[in-house]
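ok so for the tutorial part 2 we go from a plain amino acid sequence to predicted C-alpha cells. step 1 is just haveing the sequence, like this:
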Amino acid sequence: MIKMKRYLTGLLAGLFALIFMRCADVKPQAFSDYTKYYEQGMEQFKKKRWEKAIQSFNLVLLNSPGGELADDAQYYVGESYFQKKDYLLAISEYQALTERYSYSPLAEDGAYKIARCYYNLSPRYQRDQTNTERALQSLQEFLDSYPQSKYRSEVEEKIRDIRNKLARKNYESGVLYIKLQEWESAIIYFDNLLATYYDSQWAIPAKLDKALCLIHLRKFEEYETLLGDLQAKEDLTARKDKLMVLKRALDKEQKKIQKEQEKKSPQ
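step 2 — the prediction. this is what the C-alpha cells look like for a chain of 267 residues:
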C-alpha cells in the first residue's frame, strides 16, 4: 500500500512538472505568434491585400493589446481601411490609436489621418458641407496639438482649400438670391462670407456682388464706401468687366430715380 502511494505521488509530481514545463513553453510561443501575425500583416499590406492585412493586425491586437507592436498594428488597421477608402472605419481605428496609445510616435500620424479622412469625405460645394466643417475642425485641432508637425504645410494648404470651398458655398447662395432679385437676402450671404472667410478667393467677388445689391437697394453711400475701400486695397485690373456692370447698374438705377421724381413733380 505504501509503495502504491509512493508510486502515485511520484506520478502526480511528474505530471505537474510536465504541465509546468509546457506552460513555460507557451509564453515564448505566444510572443512568436503575434510577431508572426504582424509580419504577415505587413506583407499583406505591401501587396495591397487590405482585408487580409486587417485580419492579421487585429490578431496582433487580440493576442497582445499592450505589446510593443500593438500601436503599430492599430495604426496599420487604420491605414488598411484608409487605402480601401472606407474613411469612416479608418477614422474609428485612428481614434483608437490616439486614445489608447497616445504615447506612441504614431499618434501624430493617426491624428493627421483622421483629418485627412474627413477631408476626403468632403463633397463638392453644392452639397451638404457637414464633413467639410468636420475636416476644417480636425485640421485646426491637429495644428493646435502638433504646431511643429512635419505635416504643417500640407495641413495649412488643406485648410485654405476647405475655407475656399465653404466660402464658395456662401457666395453661390448669394448669387442665387441676386438672380431672384432678393437683394437683402443676397447681402446676408455675402456678409457671412466676408465675416468668416475674409481671406478666401471669394472675398473680392462677394464684395463686388454686394456692391451690386446696394445699388439696387439704392444705398448709394454704402456702395461708394464699399467700392472705394475695395479699389484702395485690391488690384481690380482683372475685374474690369464687373466694374462696368456696376457702373451700368448705377447709371440705370439713377435714371429710374430721376424718372420717378419727374412723374411726381407737378406738370
